[in-house]
Amino acid sequence: MILVIAEQKDGKLNRASWETIAAAQQLSGGAMPITVAVAGERVSGAAGELAQAEVTEVIAAEHAALAHYTPDAFVQALGQVIGEVKPALVFFPHTYQTRDFSPTLATKLDRALVTDVIGVKQTGGTPTFSRPMFQGKLTADVQAQGPAPHLVTIQIGAFRADAAQKGSSAAPIKNQPVTVDEGKLRQKPEAPFQEAKQAVDLSQAERIVAVGRGIKSQENIAVAEQLAKAFGAELAASRPICDNGWLPMERQIGSSGQTVAPKLYVALGISGAIQHLVGMKGSRTIVAINKDAEAPVFEVADYGIQGDLFELAPAIIAELQK
Amino acid sequence: MRSRGPKTQDPRPKTQDPRPLDFRMKIAVCIKQVPTREWQPRLNDDKTWVRDQDVSYEMNEPDAYALEEGLRLREKHSGEVVVCSAGPARVQQVIREALARGADRAIHVEDDGLAAADAFAAASALAPAMAEQKFDLILTGLQSDDQGHAQFGPVLAEKLAIPHSTIIMEVNVDPSTGSGQGAGSLRVKRELEGGWFQYVSMPLPALLTIQSGINTLRYATLKGIMAAKKKEIAKVAAPAGSARSRQKITALYAPQKAKQTVMIGGSPAEAAKELVKRLREEARVL
Hints:
Chain A has helices at 16-28, 44-50, 71-85, 96-109, 221-231, 239-243, 274-277, 309-320; strands at residues 2-6, 8-9, 12-13, 34-40, 57-62, 89-93, 113-117, 119-123, 126-133, 138-144, 150-154, 173-175, 188-189, 193-194, 207-211, 234-237, 264-268, 285-290, 303-306. Chain A is an alpha/beta fold. Chain A folds into 2 domains: 2-184, HUPs (Rossmann fold, 3-Layer(aba) Sandwich); 202-320, Rossmann fold (3-Layer(aba) Sandwich). In chain A, the strands form 4 sheets. Chain A has a 7-stranded parallel sheet, with helices on both faces. In chain A, helix 3 crosses helix 4 and helix 5 runs parallel beside helix 8 (309-320). Chain A is elongated, with a radius of gyration of 22 Å. Chain B is globular, with a radius of gyration of 22 Å. Helix content of chain B is 25%, strand content 27%. The longest helix of chain B is centred in the first third of the chain and has 17 residues, at 61-77. The interface between A and B is large, with 96 and 79 residues.
């Protein structure tokens, strides 16, 4: 049996929960029953939504101590759900929240955890998971070792939420009582906040020129700026550019920044680590310009040019101005 | 025992906030040696790992930010920074680099079997030696640029029975509060998705995984490189059985393309002309 751990916040389901259900359904192929569990303070609404999926059962694990996420509370609660359900596999969406607690849960259970999974298949009856390695330069097929359950996190955007099959009737919802020893919660969380009002909403941009490490220095950002202007595009960046302070954090595309899907996305000197690709691969047309022909960004590109961006950008600007 | 300096040698300026005078931080930074960004992978014969002899190595970038944060905390609160790494003899390259940047000493859990270790194996290898040291704070990068499991930090924290928090963008240490005798506590800024953040507090000792960009890196000076040669690297044998990984790589291959990419060649001017033509006429996005 596959147990899918859905994620919700203030009763609202994270869309990645549906992607994770789709991954479980694909691996199962109808052969393994699927149960979905959702934990929080009040989750009946989220559980009701999840019951639309083609699954055997939905488990609602409610406790007041789960209102605000802490790894200690979630490890306690989900450990009990796993102990009760006894799954062969536990699937999680690879969110920042899952990244925070799933290694602890796996260590407590003394079980294997395979993270960042982008593909699932059965190999002679053994579940095999694909995951990127070496910054996306290679993909590995891996099999979890040791006794079940094996824990697996599914990378955001690797499976389509709308590929999750809906059931002909709603799945039964079971309320699973969980206990949380509040004296053992070591982390004290405060309310989430945004740094500043986002001055630019890149998700609304029709065209985006995004710049990466290949630009080499802060002075060269002007090259990308001019190219963006010529395209009538917003300027954006991959994480390292914002880390260096060459562009403000609010212009960052990727898992820690904004997710965009413009008509045109030009990746200038961006190698294409998975954390960047998840933020832009839904773009309609993607152009990649990179000196390295093996750069992972070319996997998602519609048009690619291998070459020196300092020669190519001025040439493209000249062409656009003709 | 927690290391405590004699009160008469407190190097901090007297103008700083009142706090226990004997507060010194014993900070560990776990670093990993990974292939350089420029490295082009070549597979070994059975296509389950890369050809090690072709690899040039560097310090995992998020770990470099963790090291920098450790050095800054030591400068603020006094104490020491101990760099810890698990792997074969070659990882001394990045240990020396960390010592040259300012770490005080190092612990190297050396075992050839750790060359391709997963997070469980690496944490199991380091945990006993690190437990003995009774660190106040353990820092490491949020994930490695090679295998990228993003598990090592929380796994090590659980093995040492200390709290953790991940993807940290700011570290504040308060020496005056905490569970133990002046043990201190932390208030840290966690990065959430999509531009959101959150502060989380927890008692020391604790473990944090550090996000790239939390600070500005310093590089080793010639003086630092010379000083590093005299610094201690304690070599520790890996505990028996700890190097067993929890996952087996059955195949390693170039990523499958999500799209049919049209590669445009020619001179820069020719390529530019062809690209703009296709964007106008084929993709119709201009």
